[in-house]
Amino acid sequence: MKYLPPRISVVCCCFILCVNGVRLQAQNEVPMVSAVEGQPLAANVSRLLTALEYLGKPLPMEVAKAARQAAVERDAAKLQQVLDRQVLFVVELNPEVRVKVRRGPAKAGLQQGGFTPCLVKVINSSTVAGQLQVVSPQAGAVYAGAAISILKRMAQTQLNDNENKQGTSDRFLAVEMFRSPPMTEGLSGLAVEYAIALIYSSEAGKREATIGFDVGAGTQDLGFRGQVPVLFDIKPATRVKLAIKDEDGQPSTARLVFRDPQGHVYPSQVKRLAPDLFFQPQIYRHHGESVLLPPGKLSVEYNRGPEYELLQKDIVVSAAQPMDLELSLKRWVDPMKYGFYCGDHHIHAAGCAHYTSPSEGVTPKDIFLQVKG
């Protein structure tokens, strides 16, 4: 090998580092598309901004302001320049409808126990207008063996999808695309548009997950290019301690259903283990017990058996510290005052076998919590 003087060697090394720096930086750069009309892209962005506000995670004020101004001007290039720094995933569809995914420059932050909106830029060279799907091997049910007859009776057969038959412990995500108004059910076919993926985590801390996208069977690109690994920083959920009092002021047990404005039930049903059962939206808690909830606006429905009124309360969960939630039950009738005592013996005192994994049924202790509630 020919000897290079020290000064030349240093220059060459610096050049290589600069080239690599540009290449590494380019990996997270979002491609700009010039061949897109401004009016339909502006309409898409306007709906996107409204949807993010509705979901409780609006873009930073200066970004939203610049995006709205670019939408008024129908400036497609400026719209992309403003929004692309907020993109977590870039999805590219080639003319053969093969889907390739890359990581965007946005920070990969999630909220334990809640659905976090993540911005997706779709570059569509195929003009296909199908539904964009988001998938992950870390998503799906944590249980298996659910009785399909029971799920049919409850009209929740979707809870049997992607069962955890291998018993893996690495299913901490739930993923879905946000398709409710003002967003659309499917892609428009425009060369560029923006979409929203909702990602839920049942765990907190640093977690790596693989996120993929497709527009139907066989559309993922070859060589694993239809998915991308992401290291998420997941903020912990808030522990809400419950003070549940019966009509006479005594501590009691209640049936509780927590929902966000989009209708998501918390804790997520597909992430529940006993004593919380996945096949019912409600959970049961006794006075002094707690539940992990995401920060933000939620509603809670609560009662205790058919002789109690179904009450509803809007709450705001704080992200700063644990909080207390007081719930007072109210009867519409007290059968015992009229000499009626229930003789129903249909209690699963030995447990319940609605699913077989990760445990064989549910213990009597778990069932008794439901009996009291």
Characterization of the model:
The chain has 373 residues and is of the alpha+beta class. It folds into 2 domains: 86-235, Immunoglobulin-like (Sandwich), CATH 2.60.40; 238-372, Carboxypeptidase-like, regulatory domain (Immunoglobulin-like, Sandwich). It is built from 6 helices and 17 strands. The chain has a 5-stranded mixed β-sheet, with helices on one face. Strands 11, 12, 13, 15 and 16 form a 5-stranded antiparallel β-sheet that branches. A 4-stranded mixed β-sheet has the order 3-9-8-5, with no helix packed on it. Strand 1 (87-93) and strand 2 (99-103) form a beta hairpin. Helix 2 (38-54) packs antiparallel against helix 3 and helix 3 runs antiparallel to helix 4. The protein is elongated, with a radius of gyration of 26 Å. Mean pLDDT is 86; it is low at 1-25.
Biggest sheet strand order reads 2-1-4-7-6
Number of helices: 6
Order of helices and strands: HHHHEEEEEHEEEEEEEEEEEEH
Q: Quickly give the CATH architecture of the largest domain.
A: Sandwich
Enumerate the spans where pLDDT stays under 50 for 5 or more consecutive residues: 1-25
What percent of the residues sit in helical stretches (DSSP H or I)? 10-25%
By CATH, the topology of the largest domain is: Immunoglobulin-like
Mind describing the biggest β-sheet? 5 strands, mixed
Quote the distance from N terminus to C terminus: 81 Å
Radius of gyration: 26 Å
Broad shape: elongated
Count the strands? 17
Which structural class fits the helix and strand makeup?
Answer: alpha+beta
Strand content: 25-35%
CATH class of the largest domain: Mainly Beta
Indicate how many domains the architecture comprises. Answer: 2
